Amino acid sequence: MSAREDAGLWGSHHEDNCDDRSGGRQHIDRRDFIANMGGAAALLCATFMPSAAAQGSSLERQLVSLVKRQRAQGLIRADEQTSWSIYDFTRAKKLVSINEDTPRQAASMLKPFVAQAFFYTLQEQGSRLGYTAKVRETMTRMIRDSSNTATTELMQLISRYNGGNGPRDVEHVLKRHAPGVFQQTSIIEYIPANGRTYRNLASAHDYSRFLWALWNNRMPYASEVRDLMALPNHDRITKRVAGMPSNIRVYDKSGSTAMLCGNMGIIECYDRRGRPRPYTFIGIIQKNQRTNYYTTWITNRSNAMREVSGLVYRYMREQHQLA
Description:
two-stranded antiparallel sheet, Beta-lactamase, beta-lactamase activity, 10 helices, EC 3.5.2.6, TAT_signal, alpha+beta
């Protein structure tokens, strides 16, 4: 299977409030973006995006072996399904594609999608909407602090300018502008304050396509969304990952419920000559039923994900002579 595909196809714990990041990236002026690219829709039809990995890649085999070992150790149970996706920007190659097109609970990993839906709406509405300091503060709480209340506020704001039909308006905005990115995304409920959200769905492939477009400035206000995702938090893909340097930048969003442990993001590391060698990491572990032991369950699955992330980093370090 090709490693690239035509983007013309685009046309009382709070379970979901356990997320984390660090890093930054230069802003791209919105007017320059539109002038240079001729609008997001035209650009998406003229570029390429990552597709599924060639089956049996070396890293994919290693990852499968590790997850099997984790299952044997009880770190991932028989009633839990997983999805994994790794994309190497330097070589423009999908390295891992496991259950990548299976829709799974999105939880808080949906929140960058909400931010992007707002910016699509802003692009359409202009001064009628506005990216005010208050909206920016709400978006910061949504991404950095994983505030469910802030997320609902933004979803309601998006809906107000797109028909007034509630959460589904967020999905419709995304699919109207980039249907090839959000192929398995389904947004049908607000995230309640207690974080028990189980009905919104997305696939690992959706996250992969979104992160690719975000990194390559293929969406309006991409630099702003990256900056929000780079705000410091407690992610599962770089923090407390054995062997991973503490100065690595990560642009991410995690998601947690009593049925889901997930994290999706871009890890930006550098080789020995100081050149960036970014890659995406998406990991999702989903349980069939809610656990009765949330703290223990989410801790163990988070550590299992960190172990997988460490494996991926060691592979990338060898491939790219990382510093």
